[in-house]
Amino acid sequence: QSALTQPPSASGSPGQSVTISCTGTSSDVGRYNYVSWYQQHPGNAPKLMIYEVNERPSGVPDRFSGSKSGNTASLTVSGLQAEDEAVYYCSSYGGGNNFYVFFGGGTKLTVL
Amino acid sequence: QVRLQESGPGLLKPSETLSLTCFVSGGSVSGFYWGWIRQPPGKGLEWVGYVFNSGSINYNPSLKSRVTISVDASKNQFSLNVGSVTAADTAVYFCARATSGASCYDHWGPGTLVTVSS
Description:
The complex is a heterodimer.
Chain A: E1 9-12, E2 18-23, E3 35-40, E4 47-50, E5 64-69, E6 72-77, E7 86-94, E8 100-103, E9 107-111
Chain B: E1 3-7, E2 11-12, E3 18-25, E4 33-39, E5 46-52, E6 56-59, E7 67-72, E8 77-82, E9 91-99, E10 104-108, E11 112-116
Parallel strand pairs in B: 2-11
Antiparallel strand pairs in B: 1-3, 3-8, 4-5, 4-9, 5-6, 7-8, 9-10, 9-11
C-alpha cells in the first residue's frame, strides 16, 4: 500500500482561500467516501477537521470544507487566518477486505 | 469530554519490546474503536492499528507480525505492544479514539516520544 500524495507546501494571505489536494487511487480515495483531514500545529497532536469527505466535526469553523473528485480529495480553507498555519494531513480508508488507513505526507500551510 | 493519555518508557534498546498504555477518562472504552498512530521525528503520520471491544482488531500490514493491541475495559484503557524494535520504530506514538467506522480519529492523546537506541 502507498501513502496518499499531497503537495509539500501551500500558502496564502490572510482572507484568501487555499486548496490542498490529496491524490490516492481507485482502491482508496476513489472507492470510499472515508476521506479525512487533520490539522497539526508543532508539538501538538493532530486535530480532525473533516471526515467522510466533507463533514465537519463540532467546533470546526465552516471556513474549512472538503470535497472529492475521482481519486483526488481536496481541503479548502477560506478566509485564511494566522492560526490556520499548520501542517495538514489527509487520510483515507482503503485495503478492501483488509482494513487499512492511509495518510498523506502532509502539506505545510503558510499564512503570508 | 473524552481525554486520552499515553504512558510508557521513552527509551528502548534494539530488539526490546515497546509497551504503551493509553488511559481514557471522561468516557468508556466499551463500544468505541481505539487506535494507535505514530509519527517519526519530522515526518508524517503512520497508522498502526485499532481495537474494538477486544473482538475486532486490525493492524498495519507492514507492522502486523510485531504488533499487538488490546483493550482492558475494567481499567478503561488500551495498550500497544511492538516487538523486536529497531531505530525505525523511533516515533511519537499517539493513542486516539476512532469514529466513522474506524476510518478517522476524533480524540487524541498528546503523544509520547519513544526512542530506540543502543
